Amino acid sequence: MGTNDSFFNNGLKNNDSSTITGDQIALLGSAISTFGDALQTLGGAISIEESRISDIQQQQELEKLQSQIDDLKKEQVKNNSQSNDVETLNKLLERIVKRLEKEDKEVD
Predict the structure, then answer these.
(1) Contact call for residues 45 and 58 (beta carbons, < 8 A)
(2) How far apart, in whole angstroms, are the C-alpha atoms of residue 29 and residue 32?
(3) Tell me: the pLDDT tens digits for 66-80?
(4) Domain range for residue 55?
C-alpha cells in the first residue's frame, strides 16, 4: 500500500505526473475492459458448445426412438403374418371338418 501512496503523492506534487497517472488509469481501464470482452466471448463460445452437445444428445435420443419404432413395426408385420397364417389354417380346418361331416352323412 505504501507504493500506492507514494505513487499518488508524487502525482499530486507534479502536474506532469498526474497526467501520466491518468494515462496509466486509462490504460488499466482499457485492459480490464478487454479482459471483460474476452470473458464475454468465452462465455458465448461455451454456450454455443453446450447447445451443440444438447442437440447431439437430442438427435441420438430421436434415433433411438426411431429404431424402437422400426423394431415394433417389424414385430407388428411378423404378428400380422402369423395372424394371416392362423386365419388360413382355420379356413382349411373348417373345410376339412365340412368334408368330414359331408362324408359322414353320406356313409349313414
Answers:
(1) no
(2) 5
(3) 999 999 989 888 877
(4) 2-107
In tens, the pLDDT along 75-96 reads: 888 877 777 778 888 888 888 8
Cell (9 digits) for 56: 447431439
With vertex at residue 74, the alpha carbon angle to CA 71 and CA 75, rounded to the nearest 5 degrees, is: 85
SS3 for 1? coil
Name the burial class of residue 77, with classes exposed (0-12), middle (13-18) and buried (19+) by CB atoms within 10 angstroms of its CB: exposed
pTM: 0.49
Instruction: Give residue 82's Cα distance to chain centre.
Output: 39
Take residue 95 and report the three cell numbers written for it: 373345410
Residue where the block lists cell 426412438: 65
Q: How many domains does the chain have?
A: 1
